[in-house]
């Protein structure tokens, strides 16, 4: 007796593998969506601006939070202090960010984008927004907003 073919919603978008047993797992769906999202990033920002995803994220966060500390970035991105320092060093060598000593506590450093870094961060963000709009056009504007809100809510469940 021949089984019914699985519904297209129960199959991977590429490769056409049955995934019905994984369909309800958030981490699996995030990983599948990340494949598409990573492609957009690579085309729109990674290759043209020679930025890795973590570099882009750090640059964009610094641009939106002038005076942020490495410790705050480390916490926000769940990166160890030595790792965040490596990324900050790379962005500083490219003259995209600058460190400034705190006038209150000379041991502390605040990080800000340079004019070059701010321009790059804003251009990169806009290119990703435009690229995602085109790549994820199967989502309505309401679905897109809902997905963003739900992902933000899921991320907020992370231990502090």
Structure description:
Helix content is 58%, strand content 6%. With 160 residues, the protein is mainly alpha-helical. The protein has one domain (37-155): Orthogonal Bundle (Arc Repressor Mutant, subunit A). It has a two-stranded antiparallel ribbon with strand order 1-2. Helix 1 packs across helix 5 (115-135), helix 2 packs across helix 4 (81-93) and helix 2 crosses helix 5. The longest helix has 24 residues, at 26-49. The N and C termini lie far apart (53 Å).
Assembly context of the chains: single chain
Structural class computed from helices and strand pairing: mainly alpha
Kindly give the count of domains.
1
The order of strands across the largest sheet is 1-2
* Share in helix: 55-70%
Detail the poorly predicted runs: none
- Gap between N and C termini, in Å? 53 Å
Q: What is the highest CATH level, the class?
A: Mainly Alpha
* Rg over CA atoms: 20 Å
Strand content: 5-15%
- The CATH homologous superfamily is named Winged helix-like DNA-binding domain superfamily/Winged helix DNA-binding domain
Roughly what is the average pLDDT, rounded to an integer?
Answer: 90
Query: Which CATH architecture is right?
Result: Orthogonal Bundle
The major sheet is characterized as:
2 strands, antiparallel
CATH fold name, please? Arc Repressor Mutant, subunit A
